[in-house]
Write a structure and sequence with these properties.
By secondary structure, the protein is an alpha/beta fold. Helices cover 40% and strands 14% of the residues. The strands form two sheets. It has an eight-stranded parallel beta sheet with strand order 2-1-5-10-9-6-7-8, sandwiched between helices. The two termini are 29 Å apart. The structure holds zinc ion.
């Protein structure tokens, strides 16, 4: 590790804005502004020197890298209105502007990470993004924040971006946007079968992107040991071979034991362990560049604890060890599939 890394080890960029709380549901909904109270508590408790970034509204140019112009126009027509786009996905009078602000702010964070000197960033964005498709809002998501961020990194000239999505739901939107694109490696761990239904082992990319989508579907109930196995046997070797120039984490905390929407059983420290493992690869391949973007996580205690652990793993490299792998059919299948897809891709 270089001395520059040591000096900067406790600094990180922070994306947050009071307006991210203005996106609010008409009645109880799990994706609610109180989630940010929990996330901000984690940030306040973290042993990190934060550099706050000025939020920036996403330009059309930044959004059309991953969304269609027709979709932008459709959302603009909803601007200022309230309602449900689908049974899961609400908007209020602020939502479209808030979503623009979230997507633009993560793009700015990526620009700062590329320009330096601070290579780590944390974005407390709402609404979340990874289910948003090129031309469709879905699963609480309007604009696909992590996809906008990855596309920004590419537009700035970085050759390869790795997106690791440990939200308990598969990031169907992100996968789709880069499915034929070898310059963005999409990796997801998720409960399966589960919402949104995608993320099977054999979804590995298409055309030039064949082999650059890596899904690790998990049977309900898995916890720290199976995630550690997934990372050590499947995910970390693939990212190491890919040698990304930027790492982005779609950080959902809904694989937590406490989460009300899903059935995985991660403890708090697993989020720190996973983030630390990714940070080590970022130091090896990516000049330390790693950004964490908030996705899901609906239990406020689990969200605060998981995010705090992830920040310490990612920024300070201090994370508790978690349980070592047990024998698990899911992992055998995922490892075999990843080896097959990866050997075809290279
Ligand atoms: Zn989720």
């Amino acid at each position: 590790m270089s001395s520059a890394h040591v000096e900067a080890r406790s600094s990180a960029l922070l994306v947050d804005d009071p307006r991210f709380s203005d996106h609010a549901p008409p009645a109880y909904h799990p994706e609610r502004p109180e989630r940010l109270v929990a996330a901000r508590a984690a940030v306040a408790r973290a042993d990190v020197v934060w550099k706050p970034l000025s939020p920036a509204r996403a330009s059309d140019d930044a959004l059309v890298r991953v969304h269609t112009a027709a979709y932008l126009a459709q959302l603009e027509r909803m601007n200022g209105k309230k309602g449900y786009i689908d049974p899961d996905t609400y908007v209020n009078e602020h939502s479209i502007e808030v979503a623009r602000l979230a997507a633009g702010s993560v793009a700015s964070m990526v620009t700062e990470m590329v320009n330096g000197p601070i290579a780590r960033g944390v974005a407390l964005v709402r609404p979340p993004g990874h289910h948003a498709r090129a031309s469709q809002a879905m699963g609480f998501c309007l604009f696909n924040n992590v996809a906008v961020a990855a596309a920004q990194a590419r537009a700035l000239g970085l050759p390869r971006v790795a997106v690791v999505d440990f939200d308990v739901h598969h990031g169907n939107g992100t996968q789709e946007m880069f499915y034929g694109d070898a310059s963005v490696l999409y990796v997801s761990t998720h409960q399966f079968p589960f919402y949104p239904g995608t993320g099977a082992l054999d979804e590995t990319g298409t055309g030039d992107g064949k082999g650059f989508t890596l899904n690790v579907p998990m049977t309900a109930g898995g916890g720290d040991a199976v995630y550690r196995g997934a990372f050590e046997r499947v995910i970390l070797p693939v990212i190491d071979a890919y040698a990304p120039s930027m790492n982005l984490i779609s950080a959902g905390f809904d694989a937590s034991l406490r989460d009300p929407l899903a059935e995985m059983t991660l403890g708090t420290s697993a989020f720190g362990w996973m983030s630390r493992a990714l940070r080590k690869l970022a130091d090896k391949h990516s000049s330390g560049r790693i950004g964490l973007l908030l996705e899901g996580g609906y239990d406020l205690v689990a969200l605060e604890g998981g995010l705090l652990s992830a920040i310490h793993g990612m920024v300070n490299l201090d994370a508790e060890e978690i349980a070592r792998e047990v024998d698990h059919d899911d992992l055998d299948r995922a490892e075999a599939s990843a080896k097959r897809a990866w050997s075809q891709a290279l």
